[in-house]
Write a structure and sequence with these properties.
By secondary structure, this protein is an alpha+beta fold. The protein has 3 domains: about 260 residues, no CATH class; about 120 residues, no CATH class; about 130 residues, Immunoglobulins (Immunoglobulin-like), CATH 2.60.40.10. It contains 20 helices and 10 strands. The chain has a 5-stranded antiparallel sheet. Strands 4-5-8 form a 3-stranded antiparallel sheet. Helix 11 packs antiparallel against helix 15, helix 13 crosses helix 14 and helix 15 packs antiparallel against helix 16. The chain starts with a helix and ends in a 12-residue tail after the last strand.
């Protein structure tokens, strides 16, 4: 096989996980704001109506929780300016495109260390998976959590390159990084350490001056936000949470105790990180390198490991109050996966001779296996999230039984681009069912209702079914409809991932039989008596049934969270 043909084949293999990733993203991504995303509507209105450039800068750089998110706000404003509306799918896409920036960086490192293109193959299979599902489908988090990683890596990489132009770019990128997410501030001390080790006094001094200016910009008019819940975890539990954070990539491995798997593999990765740091510092102290780029590679790996371990400390300290299980959630997994990639680079680059190809082949096999596990395990999470987002939008859109959007001609109402959603075609069926107890396809609806358990507790209304077997994806499934004398509420019936490995991998049965829903007595619900219906959506086939099931809510819990945005 010619070298050109081999390059084409390897390029296609490299593109495969990227193509799968963006195809899956496109299938589940929807233009609906999640949590903090709502803040961008106010930002755009404030920015558009600002009387002068000072007010515009204040809107752009104002605090969001403990972060400055000027980068995300700027992308949101550009999207609004270009298309006339803000589309949260565009924000998600911007963040997911930023994720791509790690691949050319790894390629450059491997190429300049004289490694073949084949050495790059494992990285996209590890990097582009559904393990990052929450950031993938959350506009603000996509830019913030993906962007800060890519920008931090490029900042550290460029600041230690010998040429002046890359160093100048790194100074600019360092500012962009800290204005993307709070943990981006770590690039300032880490960059200073790396430049100190290079013994370039002029660059080190310039970096310190720039760092002082950037820290001043970040903390100017900074107000400490409402604190997160105080952690009641012991020191041992915090250490356990730290290790689980580092090993959180392992959650999708098919074992019984996922947290324990993350914990033990986190210990392994932590020891690998310590090994990388100590060995790198030893080599830098001896300064015996075959070429200059080996030193740059060592410095980059050292800086990246410091960034990961530092971020882990920040997250565990600030988020442990929510419970240790939250430390292995999807939004933080990128750091665990990044540590895997750094370990791979650190190990594969020194390998020479005929052993290189079989070694990389084995890693490729493990990377593809991890990729498959991630998609099979986290597909249910992406499915449930989409159902939650569409249901939330239904509840804040329709405020009475006419099921018509309120006439709102204000500027704020025109900011978000209107996007068709699955329930648009259900609106006539909901009105009919409310009058005559059923509508749409009635086949199997009585049986579905009879095999579903409804239980009203003191703080929530619980729905449970163990017999529903549909494997349809995207918007298909079951929803719970509540009807009071004033309005309707829609809630998703969530699915549980299939624990049978045989059915999961061989038959593609992603869901365990049944569904469940826990509807808390809190906003957006109101006090009153509700009739309960089930909605079953199977592709284009929809059925709605009310069947003598009621709940009475006498008290609504206030779940308002104080924010600074």
């Amino acid at each position: 096989m010619t070298k050109k043909a081999l390059t084409i084949i390897l390029s296609l293999i490299l593109l495969l996980p990227i193509l799968i990733y963006y195809t899956v993203w496109n299938y589940y991504a929807i233009n609906i704001p999640k949590w903090d995303d709502h803040a961008f509507k106010e930002f755009i209105e404030t920015y558009a109506k600002a009387a002068n450039w000072q007010d515009k800068l204040k809107a752009l750089f104002s605090q969001h929780n403990e972060h400055r998110i000027a980068t995300t706000r700027l992308i949101a404003w550009l999207d609004y300016s270009l298309f006339g509306h803000l589309n949260y799918r565009h924000l998600m896409m911007a963040g997911n495109i930023l994720l791509l920036g790690v691949i050319p960086l790894c390629y450059d490192i491997l190429k300049k260390n004289k490694k073949p293109l084949f050495a790059l193959v494992p990285i996209p299979f590890i990097w582009f998976t559904l393990a990052f599902w929450e950031n993938m489908y959350w506009g603000m988090a996509a830019v913030q959590n993906f962007g800060v990683v890519t920008l931090a890596l490029w900042t550290l990489y460029l600041c230690i390159k010998p040429q002046n132009a890359p160093f100048a770019v790194s100074l600019v990128l360092s500012l962009v990084t800290i204005l993307t997410s709070g943990n981006g501030l770590l690039v300032l001390p880490i960059g200073a350490v790396l430049l100190f080790l290079t013994k370039n006094r002029k660059r080190f001094a310039l970096w310190l001056v720039a760092s002082v200016a950037e820290i001043f910009i970040y903390f100017y008019w900074y107000i400490k936000p409402e604190s997160n819940p105080a952690s009641k975890a012991s020191f041992f539990q915090l250490v356990k949470g730290y290790m689980a954070f580092l090993g959180s990539f392992a959650e999708s491995i098919p074992v019984m105790d996922h947290f324990q798997a993350c914990f033990f593999l986190g210990i392994v990765l932590f020891l690998v990180a310590l090994s990388i740091m100590s060995a790198t510092l030893f080599r830098i102290a001896r300064n015996k390198y075959g070429n200059k780029f080996e030193r740059i590679t060592d410095l980059f790996c050292l800086g990246t490991v410091m960034f990961i371990l530092g971020t882990a400390l920040i997250v565990v300290y600030s988020r442990a109050g929510f419970g240790l299980d939250t430390l292995i959630t999807s939004r933080y997994k990128i750091y665990s996966v990044l540590l895997l990639i750094v370990a791979y680079l650190y190990i594969v680059i020194p390998i020479r001779g005929s052993f290189l190809s079989p070694y990389i082949t084995a890693i490729v096999f493990l990377a593809i296996t991890f990729n498959v596990f991630s998609y099979h395990y986290h597909l249910v999470d992406a499915y449930n999230l989409r159902k939650e987002l569409t249901s939330y939008q239904f509840n804040w859109t329709f405020t009475d039984k006419s099921l018509k959007q309120p006439a709102d001609t204000s500027f704020a109402a025109s900011i978000i681009e209107k996007t068709p959603v699955f329930y648009d075609k259900l609106l006539p069926l909901i009105s009919i069912a409310d009058r005559q107890s059923y509508s749409g396809s009635s086949r199997g609806m009585v049986e579905l209702f009879d095999r579903t358990a409804f239980k009203a507790d003191t703080g929530s209304f619980n729905v449970m079914n163990t017999a529903f077997t549909s494997q349809r994806l995207q918007d298909s499934g079951v929803y719970i409809l509540l009807s009071s004398k004033n309005r309707f509420y829609l809630f998703p019936a969530l699915r549980t991932r299939n624990k049978s490995r045989k059915e999961l991998f061989l038959k593609q049965y992603y869901f365990e039989s049944g569904f469940h829903s826990k509807i808390p007595y809190s906003d957006p619900l109101e006090k009153g008596t509700y009739n309960v219906a089930l909605i079953r959506l199977q592709g284009d086939d929809a059925g709605i049934l009310f069947k003598n099931q009621k709940i009475t809510i006498r008290q609504i819990k206030n779940n308002t969270v104080r924010v600074n945005w």
